[in-house]
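Minimal example, chain plus magnesium ion.
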Amino acid sequence: MDFIHLLPDSVANQIAAGEVIQRPASCLKELVENSLDAGAQRVQVIVRDAGRTLLQVIDDGSGMSETDARLAFERHATSKIKEAQDLFKLRTMGFRGEALASICAVAQVEMTTRRAQDETGTLIEIHGSDLIRQEVCSCPVGTNIKVSNLFFNVPVRRKFLKTDQTELRNLLTEFYHIVLVYPKVSFTFVHNDEILLELPAGTEKQRIEAVFGNPKRNVYTSAFVDINTDTEMVRIHGFVIKPENATKKAEQYFFVNGRYMRHPYFQKAVMTAYSGMLTGEYQPSFFIYFDISPEAIDVNIHPTKTEIKFADEQTVFQILMASVREALGKFSLAPTIDFDHPDPLDFPQPASKPVSQPQVTVDPTYNPFRTRGAIYPDRAPRNWENLYEGLPDLQNEPGGLSLAEAETCPLWQYGGKYILAPTADGLLLVNQHRAHVAVLYAQFLGQLKHTGGATQQLLFPEVLTLTRDEMVLVNTLLGDLRAIGFDIEQLSPDSYSIQGIPAQIASLSAIPVLQDILLRVHDRGADTQTEWREQIALSLAENAAIPYGKTLTEEEMRDILTRLVQTANYRRLPSGKTIVSLLSDEEIGRRF
Ligand code: ADP
Ligand code: MG
């Protein structure tokens, strides 16, 4: 069965006309949107010379039948709407049925496409709207469109293109607008054989990080505050940056129903929420997603425009502003460190600027703060140990085995990786590296919370140069870094000097360890002291633990096991990875 049909003229005329393809970036947008409309999970973009000579999009989406493949290049051929009514219920990205027709009019297009249920695919080549060939081919499921020599027959347009650098930037901007709303789809972007972006499937936060995580871009997801507001009219969620992480050049994005939009009025709402919290020309980065009934927005917009009209902009303005303000208010108590404070461990301290409660002046019949979901839906659970409650408990199993038995029984090492201990109930297998991580983790955490750690002075102090955001992060962690044994002093606005490191990791180099800590704290979005202490302890533990492949003496193995038994969570690491496992008598018996 074929899906594509021609739109009646009456409908076609209701659709905003316009030139769809103005530059390589608009071509890329249409192609990638088609891939997403076709349900692709993986989209590869291959570009040459900023799209001038080649723009190729490969997807693993639905593909097209032979008939549809040909029809797809007809104007107003679309599988996405049938009647004018449908225009108001749009959820897919493309709907006008004119993109491919426009593209093939101004370029040399070669497409191969195949549906899962077909054994063979279709190859179509069209140059400037002329069909060059159409034949059966063998190709993977999905669609592969190659657009070569864009505007080869429109010299004026070609001349109108900017430098490769500018056009490439336009391509990437268009690409960001799309990938930020499809975090579950994996994307790659290759330009002149160089992989510029490799974006695995993940959460929204991970996607933002993958796109902008370059420290120089100053967008750090650990600096984000979640916003989440659900009202009858609109659901708003996303991330706004903490005021102290504002930058001169910020990344500011609005999306509505899965589409990027520019909205200067709503931008003002966000800025109003920040008022009094920003200094000078610093701007907040934000990524804000609106979900609203399609009837409440005007989707019948010019294809190349990104402005979107909301039916009730004032109410949405108020809800948005209140939502951002509420989120910032919640975090105004985030710990900050006073450099001149005598006791570096004495925090959290309340921030100097308390934020007033959000005030909403909208229809009093609904509550804009009827939020849904937790503040950090994608955050690692806090009491991870509880997650494993109810799992078979080694110690309490019938005829129970105590790990403590391993203190006296003979021990062997297997494969440079496991410690083996024969016990009454079976063969106990212990992952040597993980066991040591667990032991050290407990130890470092104890030092952070109670005793502090010893310092090994360095013969040659090292200098750690950091970006603005990393400096902010180090400042936050400074008290705990010193407590655990780092002797570290700020040297200049963008560097620290390291004079000593925790004695237990004396054999490691300080800088990579510190960088690892920053990365973890940042990746985990650890913004409470409890959370970042866990990340510091875990980082040190993993760096210092005995590696796989290391031969251990029986004493060393016994030492690890004895100490493992004493840790509260000896079964699993915070990540959930198993440390100990029992091969029961029964299981062994079954093998013979
Ligand atoms: P629209 O997306 O507005 O419907 P297009 O000209 O972009 O119009 O595409 C025309 C039709 O071709 C689409 O409706 C769709 O059925 C089909 N099509 C285009 N690209 C793909 C693709 N990558 N995978 C599957 N079908 C596609
Ligand atoms: Mg389309």
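Confidence is low (pLDDT under 50) at residues 8-18, 333-401. Residues 30, 33-34, 94, 99 surround magnesium ion (ligand 2) (CB under 6 Å).
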